Structure formats: structure tokens, C-alpha cells
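Progress against Task 2.4 (sequence-to-structure conversion) is shown through the following example record, which the project officer requested during the mid-term review.
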Amino acid sequence: MTENQTNTFDAVVIGAGAGGCHAAARLAAAGQRTLLIDDHDYLGGRAGTEVIDGHKVNLGAIALEPGGVFEETFALCGATLDIREPNPATVFFLDHKVVDVRKGGLGFLLNGLTKQASRVLDQFAKARTGSMPDGRESTEDWLMRYTKNETVHAVFRNLCAAIFAMNADEIPARAFLTYFTQKGAFKRFGFHPEGTMGAWVALAEAVERLGGEVWLSSPAVQIEVAEGQARAVHIRREDGEIQRVEAKTILFNGGPRALVGLVGADVLGADYVRQTQEVLKPAANIVFNFASREDLMPGMPGIMTFGKTRNNRLCNMANLTATCPEIAPEGWHQYVAYAVPRPAIGNFDSDEEVELGLQDLREQFPGFDDKVKMLSTRVMRDDWPAQRSGAGHDMDVSTPVAGLWCVGDAVKIYGNGGTQACAETAKVAVERALASDARNSPAQ
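C-alpha cells generated for the chain above:
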């Protein structure tokens, strides 16, 4: 195909991360001939998986949520969702002791930590009825009004860090409470035996089975717009050739900031460009993947959230091989731990923050350096952040350009997080795109 030759699809989805894969699968299930592209040679983006020394190592996200919009996408396109749910799914690790909250939830945890537990829990009850703090007060400031207990503050900070990649002083209390009272705290989740990327492979295969195509190592270099309408995507293929692909619907999974570079600031308009700079707050974290011959989390097959640690950087840790032994060579236990820097939104010294996170791991697991094989240490920041925007700081899926929509973790529904949030953005964007297409199609 020459540079000037044009290919045509009903829809193009740029970026095969969680939001992009869900969007492409939904479009294909709706009968749209869909092209899914990505500039990497693998699916999943920041939720992808790589193989290191025979270990299937997730780059970032690990938790997949059965039920809700996430599972709905798989049902729509006929893809298999292989999730193994740990039991217990969630525990807390406080002063080197495990606290299982299956029976009593957050109330059980707080009542064991502070005499002011009832004051905090009353605020959760009010939030469930819609009585929320305004969007300006941080979770830390909100919590300080009801308790000064350091362990409680450490737990809340680590919940914010684990779910949103934000410190408690960076996420609005309104967003935090929305998640825990309306989205569901301590919800069901599980791990994929092929690594998180196994879910994206299933969706991509469904796109192809339904008549679409998937092009990897194929970055978009331009989104062509004419008369306020998105018309085509110019894509660089592996051989360096630029292909022009026309489509009536284009969905972008790279975040609104990156969209400006593909479309042009003058096309998107000053207000949209301003929002990408002022509204969006990219959030960072540090991902430690490691393995051990010794079981570091006996009887704890899910995710363990920490309380106070030496440097208050380490927030949680997951035991992956307890439910998915296939991800590691025989005889190895595999884990992933997350630390969130200070600040998570803003500039920080990566080397220093990595060391502070490692010090926390050493404190929690004496002899850590001698027991583990470190597989990877990844700092998720800048153009490759843990979250393209922290909860409470999102833009809308719509853009000023007709036929052009965003999906992913910078356009989340307020107060949501994780891969479920990305799946929700795909549902919202695809429904709007299909409705817009129906309105603009000529009468039959």
C-alpha cells in the first residue's frame, strides 16, 4: 500500500490499553468494523505483561474486577474472562500482624484502632446518603477533623495510594468517599493466570473474530480533522510506511494531553487545551515485582494493605502465585508491591523514592534482600504514569471535534479508579459515539 492509499474502517481505536481494548470490543460487538492500534508490540499498555526469567510480570495494574461494566464487555463480544478470585481478597498488615476484614469491613478495622471510629464511620454513613464534603477538601484534612490517630491516617493514606496512586493530601475527600460508598469498598477482584495481559488478548481476539483488525507496533502520527469532524488516522506501520485510515468514529486511549499533539491545539480550541494543563493531574507510583522461594504471605492469597511503615511509601502488596501459580516457574512465589512517592502529583526524585520504598519492604519483611529475586522496578510517572489523571481531576470523554472521543484513566467517572474505571469510560464513549453516528446517518 502506498503512502497515499486509504483504508476504511467504521471505527479506529488508538491505544490498546485497558480502555482502548474495552472500547474496540464494544464497537466490534455493535457491528462496527473496528481497527485497534498501538505503538507497542504488546497489548495492555500500562496494564501489560512481560516475561522475565520465566516469570509473567505485570507492568502496572494487576486487579481485574468480575461483574459490572468490565465483565459486561466480555459478555457483549463473546470473550472469555479468566479471573481467579483470592479468598480472602483483602487483608491489612498492621505492626506485622494480619487483620482480616471479611466479616466487619472498614468498621471492624477502625474500631480496633481508635476510640473515634464511630465519628469516622458516621461520615461514611452520611456520604452514602449523598452528604459529601466539597471537592476542595483533601482526604487527609477531612479525616483529621474526626481522628488524629497515626495508624488510621496511615491506613487511609495507603488506601488512597493503592487505589488511586495518590497520597491522602492529594485526593479530594469527595472522590475518596464516592469510591468507597458508591463504587464499593473491598470489592471483588482477581488475577489472570496469563498475567493481566491475558484479559486484553481475549478482547483483541474478539475484535478480530467480529471482523476487525489489530495492528501493533503501529503508532498514530496524526488525526485528520476537516470542518470540525474527525476524518482519518495516519498510522506508521512496522515497515515505516504511513497508512491513512478513514473512519467515522475515532477513540483515543492516550489521554487528552497527548491528543493535542495528534490533532493540534488550534483544532481542539483554547479551552480544551487549557483543561489538559490545569484540570488533569497525572499520578505516579513505583512497582516492585519480585519472587521468593519462601512464601512471604502465608495464608494471604490476595492483596495486603499496610499501615504505618518506616517511610510511609509502601502501600500494598499482592500474592500472585497463590491463585495463579502459572505465572512463575515451579517452586517460586511471585509478588508485586506498590509504593507511592511524595508527592505523587508533582516532581520527585525517582532514585530516592525507589530506595524509600525498598526500605519499607525491608522493614516489613526482615531479610528481604536475601530472600527475594527482584524481577523489575518500574517508576510510573510523566508520560507513562500510574494514572493519567488522579481521581477527582478528570476531563470528559467528549472532545470539541465531532466523531472523536477519549477513553481511559484521564476521563474517568468521578470517584472511580482501576481497570473497572477504564472499562466504564469505554462504555460511555462508545454509547455516545454510536448515538451520534445514528443521529448523523441518513434515513433509510
